Amino acid sequence: MDTWGWLALRDKKEHRHKEMIDLAIKKGYLRLERITAERFEKAKGLRMKFRDKPRISFTDLTTMVVMTELKIADILTEDDHFTQVGMGIQKMP
């Protein structure tokens, strides 16, 4: 997918937004993961483990749970929380 495709994914006002999401999923560029009750509980456990880092959002914690399950080590983000928790996650440039 080229840059336009990613921009269309980001911009909900883009008339082909939904079409681009569907295409990204079909092509394997985007994968949707459900936060099950089990994953939710694991994220709650991380909240307790990292209570000294209250600025980590619950969304980030659920992302960490999914990344660990799926053995994903790299993340494209500006958020430093992922590298501050010692879970082997590294930010991509």
Main sheet attributes: strand count, strand direction, barrel closure: 2 strands, parallel
Oligomer: single chain
Q: In what range is the share of β-strand residues?
A: under 5%
- Going across the major beta sheet, what is the strand order? 1-2
List the domain count as a whole number. Answer: 2
Extract low-pLDDT stretches: none
Provide the descriptors you would attach to this structure in a database record.
single chain; 93 residues; mainly alpha; 2 strands; 4% strand
Question: Can you give a write-up of this model?
Answer:
The chain has 93 residues and is mainly alpha-helical. It folds into two domains: 1-32, no CATH class; 37-91, no CATH class. The chain is built from five helices and two strands, in the order ααααβαβ. Helix 1 (3-10) packs across helix 2 (17-27) and helix 3 crosses helix 4. The mean pLDDT is 87.
In short:
The protein has two domains: 1-32, no CATH class; 37-91, no CATH class.
Write the layout of secondary structure elements.
Layout: H1 3-10, H2 17-27, H3 37-49, H4 58-69, E1 74-75, H5 81-84, E2 90-91
Parallel strand pairs: 1-2
